[in-house]
Amino acid sequence: MDPNGSIDDKCDNRLYIGNLDLRITEAALLKMFNPYGKIVSEDFLWHTRGPKRGEPRGFAFIQYSTKEEAILAKEKMHGKLACGRPLVVRLASERYALETPTSSKNVVGEGHKLHLTGGGTGQTSRSAKIAAIKNKLKSLEEDNSRTKKQKQSDNIS
């Protein structure tokens, strides 16, 4: 961020690369992403303390010289297998961006899909989780009231 509090332009050409296998090295990562443009910087993150100190954290950032190069790399590399794991590649500025479902019925389904497929950010937003829980409770209450009504009608017959 700049001093005025707005997002820096660097985020437009900076990629987040996640779901990295721990066997992938910095050199291998650079070799995979080099064909898509000029790499300006690379941040390969390591555990700095604790029992995993010195081991890779499973994600990295790569910054290209232009936004177009970053977008091309994102399109080509997202979902590509590396050491048997699909890479998660997105612009660093998209880190917290989530598509919010429009209908309440889709909230539960979309959150479930995100969790299973690892798409989006791998996490749903707090408000989406709350909405999903509310919808689940509502459907359970509706099912429960239908069951009670059916039992009452069975008892009357």
From TrEMBL:
<keyword id="KW-0694">RNA-binding</keyword>
<dbReference type="Pfam" id="PF00076">
    <property type="entry name" value="RRM_1"/>
</dbReference>
<dbReference type="GO" id="GO:0003723">
    <property type="term" value="F:RNA binding"/>
</dbReference>
<protein>
    <recommendedName>
        <fullName>Probable RNA-binding protein 18</fullName>
    </recommendedName>
</protein>
<feature type="region of interest" description="Disordered">
    <location>
        <begin position="138"/>
        <end position="157"/>
    </location>
</feature>
<dbReference type="InterPro" id="IPR035979">
    <property type="entry name" value="RBD_domain_sf"/>
</dbReference>
<feature type="region of interest" description="Disordered">
    <location>
        <begin position="102"/>
        <end position="127"/>
    </location>
</feature>
<dbReference type="InterPro" id="IPR000504">
    <property type="entry name" value="RRM_dom"/>
</dbReference>
<dbReference type="InterPro" id="IPR039157">
    <property type="entry name" value="RBM18_RRM"/>
</dbReference>
<dbReference type="InterPro" id="IPR012677">
    <property type="entry name" value="Nucleotide-bd_a/b_plait_sf"/>
</dbReference>
<feature type="domain" description="RRM">
    <location>
        <begin position="13"/>
        <end position="94"/>
    </location>
</feature>
